[in-house]
Amino acid sequence: MSKVKTFICTIPYQPKGETPEKDGLKPLRYEARGNAKLVYGETRFPIVPVINGYAEKGDRVRVLAILTEGDNFSYNYETYFVPEIAALAEKNGYAFEGIEIISSPDSEDIDTQLVLFADIISRIGYNEEIHTCITYGTKPTPIVQFMALNYINELKKETPTDTPIKCVAYGRFLHNDYEGQGVGRIWDQTALFYMNATVNALAKNRAADPEKAIRIMLGLEAVEDSEDD
């Protein structure tokens, strides 16, 4: 049985304008950096290039949308997110299993973040491929997403290859785009997640010189030849 491809993202806050033309959430052409799968046209949501790049016709696709309580979030979700995801699913021919909302209060207190973490991991089953976008949300949100990814990577496994983390993406609006071309950039940050997993493994295994091992993996230090006779 093929894996379900699950995509996790956060609905943005950008405010509604007096007219749709004045809405804060504008479509951008995100230039892909470090991953050709993320090449795409205009979109308001960087998770869209991720879905487009990692899901193929006939794939079972589900989307988990972190939706903060509030009018701006609801407006962007209903007006832009749902129609764009539905159009992409129809265009690419996914076996689309729908959008699941993970509701969260508009608060930064620790209890809110811990409940969000628990809600994310409760939605993930076995035999899924996980992709996430850390673009939107307040500062704690990507931290919570990384916590959830760590849990999934370590504990949501029946076999060593079960529930892999396939892509962590970050999209950025270019504020210095003075010509107003509506350009952003999207980066693949998956290596950061796996570096964190490597650090945890080094700590768990009591590595003799973990900092040197990390520098070697990053290409910052040459591997010394063995001088054993």
CATH topology description of the largest domain: Rossmann fold
> How many domain modules?
2
Low-confidence stretches: 225-229
Indicate the CATH architecture of the largest domain. Answer: 3-Layer(aba) Sandwich
Strand order of the largest sheet: 3-2-8-7-6-1-4-5
Query: Termini, distance in Å?
Result: 51 Å
Tertiary shape: globular
Task: Assign the structural class, choosing from mainly alpha, mainly beta, alpha/beta, alpha+beta, or little secondary structure.
Answer: alpha/beta
Mean pLDDT: 88
Number of DSSP helical runs: 6
Topology as a string of helices (H) and strands (E): EEEHEHEHEHEEHH
**DSSP helix fraction:** 25-40%
Could you describe the largest sheet, including whether it forms a barrel?
8 strands, mixed
Radius of gyration: 19 Å
Structure write-up:
This protein is an alpha/beta fold. It has two domains: 4-188, Rossmann fold; 190-229, no CATH class. The chain has six helices and eight strands, in the order βββαβαβαβαββαα. The protein has helices at residues 47-54, 71-92, 110-122, 140-155, 190-204, 210-217, and strands at residues 4-10, 28-33, 42-43, 60-68, 95-104, 128-133, 165-173, 183-188. Helix 4 links the parallel strand 6 (128-133) and strand 7 (165-173). Helix 3 (110-122) runs parallel beside helix 4. Residues 225-229 have low confidence and may be disordered.
